[in-house]
Each structure stands twice: as C-alpha cells, then as structure tokens.
Amino acid sequence: MRFLVVDDSSTMRRIIINTLNKLGHQDVAEAGNGKEGLDRLGAGPVDVIITDWNMPEMSGIDFIRAVRSTPAVKDTPVLMVTTNAAKDDIVEALKAGVNSYVVKPFTPDTMKEKIEAVLAR
Amino acid sequence: MAPTPAIDTQFIDELTAATCDVFRTMVFREVEASTPIVGDALRPGANVVGTVAFAGQTCGLVVFYSTLDAAHKITASMLGIAPGDVNGELPDAIGELTNMIAGSFRTRMAHVRGEAWAISVPTVTMGSDFYTKYVSDVQRVLCPFRMNDAELFVELIVTRSAAQ
Questions:
Q1: Are the beta carbons of A83 and B99 separated by less than 8 Å?
Q2: Alpha carbons A104 and A82: distance in angstroms, whole number
Q3: What's the pLDDT at A15?
Q4: Which end of chain A lies in a sparser environment, N or C, as judged by fewer CB atoms within 10 Å?
Q5: What is the pLDDT along chain A (121 residues), one digit of tens a residue?
Q6: What's A42-95 look like in SS3?
Q7: Of A56, A7, A3, nearest to A25 (Cα)?
Q8: Which neighbouring-strand residues pair with B66?
Q9: Bridge partners (DSSP) listed for residue B62
C-alpha cells in the first residue's frame, strides 16, 4: 500500500512516516505542499493521502479540492492531520472532501484507527 | 492606573496539560511540570525560543524556551534519530513543537471556555543573550518543566483577554 504525506514541516513528515513504518507501511512518498502533492500524484497512484492544512503555495484544503476534481485520483482516501480542531474547521475540511481527521498531537493507535476507517469506506 | 489582572489559573492548567500531552505523544518523552512563575522576574537562559501568537476573544503568545543541548535531544527524539545526527532540522522541529503546544492549548480552551482563536505560524529564534520586550501592558506566566536533566519553559503572554 502506497501513502503520500503532504506537510510543509519536514519534522511532521518524518513523524508521520515513522508512525506509518511502525504500523507496517513502508511505501511512503512525501511532498512539502499541495502543489508538490499534485505533482507526486501525477507521477503515480497512491492508496491513501495524509495532508496538513496550513501550508505555503497551496493549502491542504485547496489541495484536497484539486484532488477531488481530478478524475484519475478523485476517489483516493484523504486523511487530514492538523492542529485546527474547531468544529467549523472540521466541517470545512469534510466539505472539501476529507474522509477523516486527526488532530495533533496524536498517537500511533489513533493514526492506525483513522487509516483503517478511511480504507474501509 | 489599575493593577494588571493575573492570568486565570485555567489558562495555566490547560497550557501545562497541553505541553505534557505534546511531549508524551510527539516527542516520546515525559516532562514534569513545576510551579508556574507569574510575571517577568525570571528570564529563562535559553538559546532556542519558539513563538506562536494567538488571537480571538483572548490574544497573546505561547513561547517555548530551551537550551541548545535540550533542543537537540527534543529534535532527535521527534525524528527518531541520535542527537549527534541532528543537522539543520532543529528550527523546524522546535517550530512544530511550539505549534502543537499552542494548537493543543487552543483546542483545550475552546472546549472549556468556548473561545475560538486563530494561531500564527511559528517563529524560532536561536542565539544567546537576548530578551523579548513587550511595549504594551501584558500578563505573563512562565511554566517550568523538567525533561530528565534539562529544564524547559513554556511562557504564556496575554495581551488582551475576554475578561478585560
């Protein structure tokens, strides 16, 4: 299973990749913002996208809207990992096309549960 | 001039809990909180300072202070590498750590007080012999933490609160 992690923080990308590795997922691509994320998706399919919200160049919300409007990848499950935990934020993310939401800080168990949930859809 | 009101203990309790939670889950280290120090009498001897501003019904800053050595250990622990292998990742890691502490604090305050705040992107200052001076009247509380042999601080600076 191939994951794409999109986050402008190299630290957070590494934490998420380490968490995925611990959960048994070794095939992980990464991108520093939504624009790079779209480029990565153009290079080959991924099974799950994990994205931050606040990023330069293209935010996570704009990235997800772009994914959902691109026929080749529009059905890819998307998990958002962010500190934006207000109810309005979650509603906006879900409207943009997010399948599930992880609020930082998170545990590996939470990440595992959310990945399983988006894959079961 | 009326005396500057003290920071509500609920703010201090939630900031302390947020800091401990972020260290436990994302730094993979336990920190032990000590008694908070109100005011600006104590100036932490820090080489690395992360800052995130927040604004809403309450406005202010969350500031993380660490020595360079402790910041290396924190960065290494977050990335899952040896402290000696840290090379250039430190500012991003401390910025992300401060962002998560401020973000978790914001979420907790939204739950307990119903306040909605926006937070800024983090900034990280590295160096020595510097001190941040605030031009307007502010309320400050410095929360000390111990991570093994390292002392860390998280300061809450409130420039305007809903109670004022």
A1: yes
A2: 6
A3: 96
A4: C
A5: 999 999 999 999 999 999 999 999 999 999 999 999 999 999 988 999 999 998 889 999 999 999 999 999 999 999 999 988 878 888 999 999 999 999 999 999 999 999 999 998 7
A6: HHCCCCEEEECCCCCCCCHHHHHHHHHCCCCCCCCCEEEEECCCCHHHHHHHHH
A7: A3
A8: B48
A9: B52, B156
Asked whether the beta carbons of residue B89 and residue A107 sit closer than 8 angstroms, the reply is no
Token pair of B37 as six digits: 């120090």
- Determine the length of chain B: 164
B45 phi, psi to nearest 5 deg: -80, 85
Q: Is A75 exposed, middle or buried (0-12, 13-18, 19+ CB in 10 A)?
A: exposed
Are residues B109 and B117 in contact, defined by beta-carbon separation less than 8 angstroms?
A: yes
State whether B25 and A11 contact (CB < 8 Å): no
The reply to whether B107 touches chain A by the CB within 8 Å rule is yes
Is B110 in CB contact (< 8 Å) with chain A? yes
Q: Token pair of A48, please?
A: 């799950």
The pLDDT tens digits for B95-116 are 999 999 999 999 999 989 888 8
Running DSSP on this structure, what letter comes out for residue B49?
E
Q: What DSSP string describes B125-151?
A: EE-SS-----SS--EEEEEEEEETTEE
User: Is the model's pLDDT at B132 over the cut of 80?
Assistant: no
Closest-approach residue (CA) in chain B for A12:
B96
